[in-house]
Request: fold
Amino acid sequence: MEPMALAWTKQTAELWTATAGPYVLEARDRGDGRWLWQVTAEGGRSAEATGVARSLGAAKSVSEQYVMRTGKV
Reply:
């Protein structure tokens, strides 16, 4: 699987976001060295996928992988 070339934007020190097709991806620092990630459809009220990763890079990668697997991007 080839990695996506998404442009992630640093919103605050704790929050990074990106958009891919109909999805909004977020990575948020928990403050304990781990990162929460979530993928939400634009306009959606709840996340389609969420998780915890050990680093910002891992959080970005796993959320991008989820989006790629949906086939909607």
Notes: The mean pLDDT is 92.
